[in-house]
Queue: 2 jobs
Job 1
Amino acid sequence: MCGIVGYCGKEHCANLLIEGLKKLEYRGYDSAGIALEENNKIVVVKAVGQVKNLENLIKKSDKKAVLGIAHTRWATHGKPSLQNSHPHTDCSGDIALVHNGIIENFLELKKELLKRGHKFKSETDTEVIAHLLEEEYKKGKDFFTAFQKVTRKLKGAFAIAALNSKEPGVMVAAKKQSPLVAGITNKGFFLASDIPAFLKHTNKAIFFEDGDTVKITPKSIEIYNADFRKITRKVHTISWDISAAEKGGFKHFMIKEIFDEPQAVKDTLQTLPPDITKAFSLPLKEAKKIEGVYIVACGTAYHAALVARYIIEHFAKIPVEVEMASEFKYRPIHFKKNWLFIAVSQSGETADTLAALKNAKADGLKVLSICNVVGSAIVRESDYSVFTHCGPEISVASTKAFTCQLTVLYALALQLAYVQGAITKAEFEDLYQELLTLPELLKQTLKLENEVKKIAAKVYKSPSFVFIGRNASFPLALEGALKLKEISYEHAEGFAAGEIKHGPIAIIDKDVPVVALAPKSDLYEKMLSSCQEVAARGAKIIIITNTSVKNALDVPYTNEYLFPLVAATVLQFYAYHIANFLGREIDKPRNLAKSVTVE
Ligand code: M6R
């Protein structure tokens, strides 16, 4: 989705803003633009396509500006074009602004503005904000007051940053349901949709809340809440390492992030407090009372939730309901008392997950979130939070976040099992010890990359790809298929192995490679039977197991519920190398955005 970067301070900012936009490229975009304020004048430059196209258009003379806003646009209203790209300006060209989100009432606002003589240059919803600001400012208010009034008229989701050449040295901003964070340096302030945009310059960040309006000058930041009351917000120290947001010699962020997994899991495990009864910030009394768990998430996080269902039900013996956040709101669920609601999200900003969480909270459920971004919207709305410590995940296709989400969920399952008396302390300790070996197991698994690459080289031209698994490995099959289709654009599907004979086997033939997830377990023989069924239709079978059989991709041995946490890496390699052989744009796949901040 769109990315915003702003700067107000003492430094020349054109390059800072471009650099910030490049760090937000992972969010997905089709055009980019910048507005710089200099000598009481606003210069707007836009380009379709990549940020580097924009960079080439910025004149040397404009590079001295110390105040500016920049944007990458992911088209919603109107095609990708120069006219539709941000920043948008009012009729006079004095006011420029960038916006992320959707203004739901823009049509009615636009109709009124047109009647009052405003001239529109774009098809976007955003442009109405510039014209509304122009009108409000003309009423004689100062720019910030006018801006606050305008935000009251907007329905929908927005993060906005705006400038006015008539009030040089001031940047104003607002946030409602779209992410916006400020970075604080000793030379000025950044505004951004996400931390990597300014992480090189500062790790001090303020996360704004819905309804906040903000006035920034080179020396000060004033924040007002939804009632326009001046308030202070906590300054967070971000522990991410800057190098984590760089490719570090790898061809793509995705492959780098797969190789980050052992460390990310280690960091995640180390931050879970050793006192198991406090591991999830849930008071012991509450944890004991839990009768069931709802888990809601989207995309890859949803697949982590599906795997967790098997793990929690197996160890803690309590029921788990998993729902896609985007569908959750359409079900008239009567929440069961004493059920815990868990939201899983890498970004902590996914609008669908946030909406589902708010529903559950409104119905009186306690909410626990598992997120990667401290201070994100989902974290702020939750009663309790546990963090994955992946550092920034830049590649649109989620890899290390998935493994870390599963790590936290696995630990949670063990804790619930113990506090609820489903396993003994000794059993808990054995299982937890096994979990603690995961970073090492992942390091071993990374050694399979070349083997997986050779397989990918043989199958990458296939017309379709299938993944099968049973029990906790069934959702992993879904994730394997999602990963592959996201970055290769090829057709891929995941199935419960026992289900293929009920229909999906019709698509199997000699050209369809089938990845079979077959950990050692009571179901191993059944998995082999499923493999026989597809082999009989001529399919090429790629077995991922931990049983040391010949001609299989053999990952280190674990119990079958820990297997998905280890085998995920192999599927990620498989997707990566197929997409790479096909020459796809792996880190920024077509049509996808990293952080989906609209419902
Ligand atoms: O930030 P979130 O974990 O809430 O994001 C959820 C999905 O949008 C995300 O997992 C998406 O499916 C990724 N592209 C997966 O690779």
Note: Residues 400-419 form the longest helix (20 residues).
Job 2
Amino acid sequence: MTHPSFTRRGFLGSLGFGSLALDSLAAGSGEGASATSAGTALRPNVSDFPPDFQWGVATSAFQIEGAASDDGRKPSVWDTFSRVDGRVKGGDTGDVACDHYRRFAGDVKLMADLGVKHYRFSISWPRIVPDGRGAVNDKGIDFYKRLVDTLRDHGIRPHATLFHWDSPQALEDRYGSWRSREMAKDFADYCSAVVSRLGDRITDWMTINEIFCFTYMGYGVGGTPQHAPGTVVKRKKEVQQTVHHALLAHGLGCQAIRAASPVPCKVALVVNCDTYVPVIETPGNIAAAKKAFLAEEHNGTVLVPALTGEYGPGVLETLGSEAPEIAARDMEIIGQPLDVLGINLYTGQYTRAAENSRGYEILGMPESYPKMQMPWLNLVPESMYWAIRLIGEAIGKKDLPLVISENGCASDDQVSSGGEVVDLDRVLYLRSYLRQASRAVAEGYPLKGYFQWSLLDNFEWSYGYARRFGMVHVDFATQKRTPKQSFEWYRQVIREGRVL
Ligand code: GCO
């Protein structure tokens, strides 16, 4: 690893120059103009989304559910990790979170008010199989039945992620969770248990969320990892092995879902790929961005193998003796065909052509570069367009349907004396990124949907409740929900099918 430390998403210190210039460029490139639904202002067609575009919001179980020991749920690695002094800001835990386990009906009502027809949430493995393997907890299943039935009553289609980092502590105690190949098999069995019981109600499945964040960031050589289980290992090879096991779990999970589903279903993987944005859109810089997209370590060890069944070009060679052990047939299992790819898209890194052995250079960000309220969240709206385009052009998956499974930002949201939360920085962020999504749609790339992260302020991992990503403000003392300005903005965007 050439980079000294990991940030929450990708590597620290990557970056480059950029501005919203491409936004204006894209907006200006629309041919002609048409009236708004109100019939007043003129606008470029480039901001249109098709009528069947999937507008949604996303959450995850550990971050919102609470009810950590209710109805037979046992601890996950995040329950344990958050109880270790100094691991999570303020000593926050997921014990109560947004109390969504009890308040889900009100939260679904909020979604209906927002106008989303799609909801991405995750299922908690330790709620369904509390010991990680073995007995299935019917009460856990019943919660998701109640949730999904309520969603469907409101015309909202469920998209369920089977693993969003909350692995059962029992498997960590038993064999070190992702350090063991057994984890992949146990994950597939858990997938079968869920899909055979909920597959009559849910047909959109996502196996695993962001392999990067619970492998590279959950296991580390030297310093203490920022994410659960927070295990310090001796060699980088051990970290790479956790990544490989997670890929294997995804592949076996795909097979298990398809085998267990009582009806035809769709299966996706969710990645937070590193996105390389040509600093100026010249053919040379575009070629450089493509090379980086395939060859840089994170994409080359997660996205590329999952989509192609082979690690990225040169990646295993570069890892050398630190490369993972790969058993016969692993790569075939890992490269299962996908129905959809989910991209969690937050930021990107500016890239240009260079006369070095790699043929590209990733630019460092100046200190003064604009960022949102997270150290890693540089404002790089063009990353939205380039992530979508590079999946097709760099990896050759031109027809693979894509959804943006997460996009959003933290803001320093305050409730005013009048009871409002006017989160203008979130509106700025979302608007500039959605414009780039509309550019991708206008150019014919297969973007089918967009899930804003997140409906509610929630447990933001090692930041606890100190960072707010919601379009609905949550007062964690009273559980009062207050829709923010961004909620109203997104509601109008959905209603009109274009960026406002
Ligand atoms: C992630 C996660 C979310 C985060 C969000 C903001 O992808 O990192 O899916 O759980 O909360 O991205 O950091």
Note: Residues 240 and 324 are 5 Å apart (CA to CA).
